[in-house]
Amino acid sequence: MQARVRPLSYAVVATLAVVAICLTPPLEKKQVFPMQPVVVSRPGLEPANFLLSPLVVEASNTELMDTLAITGTITSSLYNALNESGVGVLPPSARHQLAWSLADIFEYKVDMSRDLHQGDKFHLLVERLQKPNGAIIVNKILGARLALSNSRSPLEAIHFDPPGGGSTPYYDASGMSLRAAFLRAPVAFRRISSIFGARKHPIFGEWRNHTGTDYAAAMGTPVRAIGDGVVIFAGKKGGYGNMIDIRHRNGMVSRYGHMRNFATGIKPGMRVGMGSTIGFVGMTGWATGPHLHFEIRVDGVAHDPKLALQSRGGEPIPANERALFQKMRNQTLASLSDAHGTGTSE
Ligand SMILES: [Zn+2]
Questions:
Q1: What share of the chain is helix, strand, coil (3-state, %, to 5)?
Q2: Confidence (pTM)
């Protein structure tokens, strides 16, 4: 009995499915329609000051995209500020993602674990994407302006995909790639506990007046080479404990101290690439807690990494793509300024 009923019910279901498919109107492949931009509330600003002009947004029948202007001021941390500014327009997961994306864009310019302070401002132009299942994500950051209190002019990032491809899709206003030859920090900011904080940094009982930067991080946190180079020292050295020196192409040496141990294969003569793991955070040598001691040395003299790494910019945009870039840049900067009632000279 059951054996006969089952094929029959299958046939009924299949027939119904075919009928349903035939009756469903065909979906259009792509639609283009104007969308009003979403405005993020900003205390102290009249809506007219930051309303974007309506944008024409292209969307398929499965995804919706629009552009958001998000701005804020750091009081405790960049993450908290972004989290507050994005309330109501982005879900918590997307606000979290936005903080990391912003940090990635400025990875070669800003040491997110140290360079941010209370009162620093950010302005972002964000492409928001709603997926077919309703999930809302940040598709990309189209433009960003970071006004840091310890930097005279704001840092700007403009998203631009050169038709010929490039190393990174972000450029400053003058058309120089934000990707440079050196990372600004030897510990990935995702690994540092006080990320994006505007707080004081702990002291680890090292020798006084040392020229370098100390990064608080958990024991075993990976340490990365800040640029391509050759290991010229890997071993124990006095107060530094387990230490690595890497010589870079410009003659500059980056030094990493107090490491628990080195990555496999790290020894003098070995070539390392920017961002590759060379060892792990520890507290060998003169250190009272786990942290990385980091130095930049030029001609054997230690320099403040912040200053030594500051001026090293990236590649300029190729000449044949400049006109296109400038058009994109003008649009992005205008949108950032319109949205926030600020000029580029802020
Ligand atoms: Zn130190």
A1: 25, 30, 45
A2: 0.71
